[in-house]
Each structure stands twice: as structure tokens, then as C-alpha cells.
Design goal:
244 residues, mainly alpha, globular
């Protein structure tokens, strides 16, 4: 699959949604580990929402999904982020200027959750498979902890190397010491990395004038006894081995 050029507003969003407060410490209490799980769920939903918008612009060989009108949101209380203009295509709303519901880093629930889950449901199968392949690779390789921790922390603290380094260590230790958290961390990584790889492929296509495939790691079998939480199964379209 080769993506077509991506609007600059979406490219900025791909980076903006990664600005979350991953922990900066190395030992975590049970409450904080739960907060990390919520952040993973938020990031997975955000990443797949962005992918659904990217897919609306089409891929070579892939038909964009039909998108219905966006559900109603509460009345605006703050101005929309600077530089964002609503876009529409084929009579359907693609995304709107007021992106507070997407950029809000608080716990995902209510209408925000349903809106992002609905966007994930509209993903073309070929696009979802890219995310699932990256997710399984992270869980099946010995380097999964290093790859996910460094990427998530680097995206969260792009201008603060000290915080990025501390968050990398914190996430890596959680990955190594708490295997049950790996599927959630890998889902957050795969869902946010795939849009970034999409944008890189689109940038290369614009620069060189030739189709460039979207990078993804190979899909591999899940390790035995992998805990697939219900929200992961819902967002990625995979089966639950266990209820988490």
C-alpha cells in the first residue's frame, strides 16, 4: 500500500497526539499502572482515529471507507486550535476545527470514546492489518520493550531529552517486570507509530514522485498466554485470549 500526499494539518496531529504524560519514575504503584493502561487505551484510540482520517484520502489499491456524518459534540466553550480548518469530502464530515475531544489527554470515556471507537471500526481491513502486524511484532520480539518505550517516550517529550530518557526507562521496566501490560503498551505504540510511518511514506512519495509503501513489521503469532484486553480486541479487531 502506498499513501497519497497527506494534508499538513494531519501531519501535525500525528505528532500532537503523542504529547501525553508518560511516567518519569522507575517504580510504579498499582494506581499509577492503571493510569498507564488508560493512557495506552487513549493512545490506541487516537492513533486509529487518525488512521481513519488518513485513509479517507485514499491509498493506491485501497478504496477509502464510507464515512457518515460525525456525531454531535457539545457546544464549543473555547476557540478551535489555531491553524485547523474543517475538511469534508463526498458530503461527509472528515474532521472538524474543534479538536479538543481528540487532543484532550484525560481518561477516555463517554462520547469521546464512542467517537474514536467508531472511527476505528471504519478502518479498511488492509490498514488495520498494518497496525495488527506492528502490534504482534512488538509482542513477539525480544526488542519489543526497547522499541515501544523509546518511541512512546520520545514522542511525548520531543523537546525534553531528560524527561524522554526517564520515561523510556520507566516504560521499559514496566514492560520487563509486568508482562501483562505489554499488549496494551504495544497497542499504543502500534496505533501511533503506523500513522507516523504513513506520513513518512507520503512525504517520500511527494519528494521522489514514486509510490512508497507504508512500512510495517512482519506479523507473527502472539506469545502463549497473551492477555488481550477487551478494548484491544475491539480496536484492533482481534480475539481475546483472556479477559483483562
Amino acid at each position: 500500500m502506498s499513501p497519497r500526499p497527506v494534508p499538513p494539518e494531519l501531519i501535525r496531529l500525528v505528532a500532537q497526539v503523542q504529547l501525553v504524560e508518560w511516567p518519569l519514575w522507575t517504580e510504579s504503584a498499582a494506581r499509577t499502572r492503571r493510569e498507564i493502561l488508560e493512557l495506552c487505551r487513549l493512545q490506541a484510540a487516537r492513533g486509529l482515529t487518525l488512521l481513519s482520517w488518513l485513509a479517507q484520502d485514499g491509498l493506491d489499491g485501497v478504496t477509502p471507507p464510507a464515512i457518515g456524518p460525525a456525531p454531535a459534540l457539545p457546544e464549543r466553550t473555547t476557540p478551535p486550535p489555531s491553524g485547523f480548518m474543517g475538511r469534508s469530502g463526498g458530503g461527509a464530515v472528515v474532521w472538524e476545527g474543534d479538536l479538543g475531544w481528540l487532543l484532550d489527554s484525560r481518561r477516555l470515556c463517554g462520547g469521546r470514546r464512542e467517537r474514536m471507537y467508531a472511527a476505528a471500526d471504519r478502518l479498511p481491513i488492509e490498514v488495520r492489518e498494518l497496525v495488527v502486524a506492528n502490534w504482534t511484532w512488538a509482542l513477539g520480539t525480544p526488542h519489543g520493550g526497547q522499541a515501544t518505550a523509546a518511541y512512546l517516550a520520545g514522542g511525548a517529550y520531543p523537546d525534553d531529552g531528560y524527561s524522554a530518557a526517564r520515561a523510556t526507562v520507566a516504560l521499559l521496566r514496566l514492560w520487563e517486570r509486568r508482562p501483562g501490560y505489554r499488549p496494551a503498551m504495544a497497542a499504543a505504540w502500534a496505533a501511533t507509530r503506523t500513522p507516523a510511518d504513513w506520513c513518512k511514506a507520503a512525504e517520500l512519495r511527494a519528494a521522489y514522485g514514486a509510490a512508497v509503501p507504508i512500512f510495517s513489521y512482519p506479523r507473527v503469532p502472539l506469545p502463549p498466554r497473551t492477555v488481550v484486553r477487551p478494548w484491544i480486541a475491539r480496536l484492533l479487531g482481534v480475539q481475546k485470549d483472556q479477559q483483562g
